[in-house]
Amino acid sequence: MAAPKHGKQWSALDRDLHRFSYLEAGTAYVSRPLVGFGIALAFIVIAGVLAGFVFGTDTSGMIIIAAAVFGAYMAINIGANDVANNMGPAVGANALTMGGAIAIAAICESAGALLAGGDVVSTISKGIIDPSGMQTTQIFIWAMMAALISSALWVNLATWVGAPVSTTHSVVGGVMGAGIAAAGFAAVNWPTMGKIAASWVISPVLGGVIAAAFLAFIKANIVYKDDKIAAARKWVPVLVAIMAAAFSSYLALKGLKRVVKIDIETSLIIGLVIGVLTYFVTRPMIHRQSEGLENRNKSLKVLFGLPLVFSAAMLSFAHGANDVANAVGPLAAIVHASQFGDIAAKVAIPSWVMIIGALGISFGLFLFGPKLIRMVGEQITKLNPMRAYCVALSAAITVIVASWLGLPVSSTHIAVGGIFGVGFYREWHTERRRRKLAATRPLPHIPLLAPEERRRRKLVRRSHFMTIVAAWVITVPAAAIMSGLIFLLLNAMVG
């Protein structure tokens, strides 16, 4: 009888150990988000401590410390939200793993910010408010501080909800709201705000139309051809050359401001030269890569995988070069005003400010970015390398077209608009083919889908569409209201 009793004792011990293992697993699962928040908090604190070492802890030094803390917080939120638009399509198309996307984005975003980031930034965020309307330098500092805090809070809230928003528009709203609270409605440059409001519609629509047009071209000239491989050998080098030309022009126009000032015509010439060279280089490469591939759509995805990875990397580099400076603009303005006691229309961005921006983006992307990357790449509509390639290409071309027309656009709105454009085109094309097939080859034994069932099978998730559009529309007014209230609070506390 001893053996069974001994066995029961060990059985009870095993159950207790299993309970402990479940508890440990549950504790680890619960603590994972806390680790992310802990690392982010540590980075924010370190940014403030370093600013204190450099500028001291007198009155102006404490202001710069506070600005550095909120600047680091803003940079983390950029990484968590804005970068997802560059990497989401590549991850959704399975051209990149999540880890690979995060690594490439962190490197390219940081390189863009540090190597090609704008060395001069408008402290009034592209002429939104008139700094002469500010009564004192202190009021200007609190206005920029309020803009920084409100834009960071808004982007954080949008990330938590799962909506990709424009960090540049968040800063614009913050600056506008603080400017109104500090100097009244007359201080705002309303024509500039009108252009920005127009970009809410222009950016996604233009990005969506261009992405859908390229997808239609690929389907007509490659996917629906009898010999898909031969068609791919003919057209994929052309498409890769167009991508190289577009990104070369984009980077020359947006990413080389620190090295040399390039106008739109020169950037197009640079893009044309690089595009032609790329065609002659990639043509034999595509021919070799396509040898032995089966004549089916799955084989075509292989040929678009590598160009898609390069496009995601180039988008991240250009984003780091262009958008990071806008996001840390209020921080640079606060540092200048605190150090020199005056309000300048344009100030140089200190290197340590750009470093905070670059590192903050990397931390935010690594710790909190996967949620938005998955949403953008997988949950709006189903992407494959060809569709994701169209999205990336439309982003570069749309920025060039908008720059040529003098329209302010958002890279976030363009990329997400391109995804919607691809999805809505697929819906239209699928319905068109269904009707054409039913008209030419009626099959009475196969019942037609009911309207309710067809709506359920839509290729674009309408819930995400409505959430994102609503977030876009209210970004500027929400950030403005928050910024105005924060400015009044700051002014009351120190007044």
From TrEMBL:
Membrane topology: Multi-pass membrane protein
CC per GO annotation: membrane
The entry's keywords: Membrane, Phosphate transport, Transmembrane, Transmembrane helix, Transport
Subcellular location: Membrane
A biological process term (GO) from this entry: phosphate ion transmembrane transport
UniProt keyword annotation of Aminoacyl-tRNA synthetase present: no
Main location: membrane
Organism of provenance: Shimia haliotis
GO molecular function: phosphate transmembrane transporter activity
Protein name: Phosphate transporter
Coiled-coil regions listed in the entry: none
UniProt entry tagged with the keyword Cell division: no
InterPro entries: Phos_transporter (IPR001204)
Family the UniProt entry places it in: Belongs to the inorganic phosphate transporter (PiT) (TC 2.A.20) family.
Origin superkingdom: Bacteria
Pfam families assigned: PHO4
Residue stretches spanning the membrane: 34-55, 61-80, 92-116, 139-159, 171-190, 196-223, 235-253, 259-281, 302-321, 349-368, 388-405, 411-428, 465-490
